[in-house]
Amino acid sequence: LSLHDAACQVAQEVAEKIQERNRYQRNGESSAKLNVIIRSSLQNLREKIDQLKDLLLRAVSTHQITQLEGDRRQNLVDDLLTRQKQLQASYKNEGTEPDVIRSSLMTGGVKRGVTNPWLLEESEETRGLGFDDLRQQQRRIIEEQDAGLDALSSIISRQKQMGQEIGNELDEQN
């Protein structure tokens, strides 16, 4: 767990260095030194994550920790791995991604696979409907879904009853 905390600290430091590098780039200052530091810190983080994986595997296989604790720690390692991949992607983007996202919000186009969620086409069923009409349509859809769920519930309860009857018949036959 202390190794996990150390890895989290390294991840936090990398994120801060990437932020600092991006700030330098926006101001036109040189960020070469920071790039070297970030690259070595990312490598250090990767090594710590690999070490955590090995230690966790060893602890679970030798039953030093319970399976539940092993799962919890595996989730922590997975979160760290995800964070490391995000940091790696952020490092490789070199600060250009937020500008691309910001510009795509105001334009109608698609840039680097980022779509503007506000420019979705309205469906044929809802085109021209007011708020009250949309609300009524949503209520009708919800009522239909509720009716379907009620039917499903009755089917499942009937299957439960049949299963209990089969179980009782088996007990009686045995």
TrEMBL record:
- Report the source organism: Phaethon lepturus (White-tailed tropicbird)
Report if keyword DNA-binding is assigned: no
Q: PROSITE patterns, alphabetically? A: T_SNARE
Q: Where are the transmembrane segments?
A: none
- Alphabetically ordered keywords of this record: Coiled coil
Q: Which domain of life is it from?
A: Eukaryota
Recorded protein name is Syntaxin-8
What sections of the sequence does the record tag as coiled-coil?
35-62
Q: Does the keyword Oxidoreductase apply?
A: no
All copies of the T-SNARE coiled-coil homology domain together span 139-174
InterPro entries reported in the protein's UniProt record: T_SNARE_dom (IPR000727)
